[in-house]
Structures are given as structure tokens and as C-alpha cells.
Amino acid sequence: MDVPLWLAVIVVGWLGIKLTRPPIWLVALLLLGGFLLADSIIAPALDSLVK
Fold this sequence. Notes:
Blueprint: H1 5-20, H2 24-38, H3 43-50
């Protein structure tokens, strides 16, 4: 069964929010921070750390 990555991310995110009940500001901060870091100068360094 092939599941698109975007669908898997949405399902895992939805389950995480439903089960752990983090504050909305924390979810927004993590999403915004990840978006900004992905397009920054340090993105290649972060990519090598993750791999």
C-alpha cells in the first residue's frame, strides 16, 4: 500500500495533537520554526545532522 507523504504527515500530526493535547501556540511555533529553518542558510547543516 502506497501512502503519500503529505497524508502520513497529516495523520501523524492529527493523532499527536489529539493524544497529547499540546497548546495551540506550541504547535504554531514548531510549524513556523520548521518552515523558517528549512529555508535558511543553516538548512544544509541541519540536513547533514538529520541524515
